[in-house]
Protein: Glucose-6-phosphate 1-dehydrogenase
Organism: Mycolicibacterium sarraceniae
Amino acid sequence: MSAHLQERQIYRIDHFLGKEPAMDIRYIRFSNSIIEPIWNRDRVEAVQITMAENFGVEDRGHFYDPVGALRDVVQNHLLQLIGLIAAEPSSGGPDGFRDKRVELFKSIRPVDPKHYVRGQYADHLDVEGVAPDSQTETFTALKLYVDNWRWSGVPFFIRAGKTLPLRATEIRVIFKRPPALPFLPKINEQNEFIVRIDPSPGVDFVLQAKESGADATRTVNLCLVFSDEMTEVQRRELGDVARANRGASGGTGGVPGGQTGGHGSDGSAG
């Protein structure tokens, strides 16, 4: 495309970036002064990104078998979520944040094979369109590290798979455990910031508070639910194209080795 069009004329769409909870990450990070000081290696223990599906490949064997979980959802959608969670703040409009995401992706350390797991659910070979000797993964999990000042030493865990016990796409930022307090009988649980993308879109802050009537703490969830606020993703993104709003566009080199086209695991355009 770049041989025939200027970059400003190209709008790369990843429908995950257009989902309301994903779009909200940047606003929560940079619009709240209490968040930014704790969004780093000093306070964050780990980041977990999960895309669990409780169904199989179904009638998509011809598409899925040459692709697998890693290429279907990890190298595009889930890496883009890391970009939203971990990229530095920017100025200068939408192009600036895309540039910061590209900078972040370039800081991701090559994956150690010891930190990469592949699996295949039992009945995958019975799916129409799947090769009888297929080694295609329907589950994958990996641990990444971002080699920059903010995230040095913080593991980013990604996992995606089919025929799992539940359906959930979410991001969990897990904060370091607070020190033991002498007036409490046990060590406090960790705080978490959770972005729920599917099937119940929203944002949770997991905090600790006093247990009523007891000398102990309890877990409290502060929830923001998006179910009544959702706008159809494709409709919004096509509207952005018509208005020349490139804020959610992937941009040049948005994900190393990323692909365009095809269909995501939820059936929408990838």
Notes: The chain is about 20% helix and 20% strand.
